[in-house]
Amino acid sequence: MSADAYSVIVNALGFTVSAVAILYLARQTRLGRDQAAIAVNHSILSSLRELHVVLAQRELLGYFYDGRECPPEDPRHREVTVMADTFADILCSRLHAHEKMPASESLEPWRAYCADMLRHSPVLRTRLNAAFWPHLDRLGGASGGPPGPPAP
User: Which regions span the lipid bilayer (predicted)?
Assistant: First the structure.
C-alpha cells in the first residue's frame, strides 16, 4: 500500500473520530442545558413553596389568592407589601428564566399562573413596576388588571 493510501485512511479515521467527538459534545451540551433548566425551575419552585408557607403562617394568603385589598392604613400593609414584592420577584424570575430557556414546556402554564395571580391579588397588581419586574409587568394588562406604573 502506498503512502497516499495510508494518508487517506488516517485522515478518514481522524475525520470520523472528530465527528463522533463533536456529536458527543453536542449531546453533553444538551444534557447540561436540560440539567440547568431543571435546577433553575427547582430553585424557583422551592422559593415559591417557602413563600406559601410563610404566607400561610402569617395568615396572609387572602391578600394573594382571595382578592383581599390592603390599603395603606391597614396595620399589615408593610408586611403584605414586602411579601408582594417577594412574590413578584419569584414570578418574574421564572418568566425571565423561561425566556432564556425557550425549549421549556412550562412557559405557557407559568404565564397563565402569573396572570391568574395578578387577577386575584390587588396587592400584586398595585406593586407592579416595569423597572423592577418587567416580565411580570408585561402580563399586567393580560391579567385583566391594570398594568403597573411606568418605569422611573
Answer: 6-26
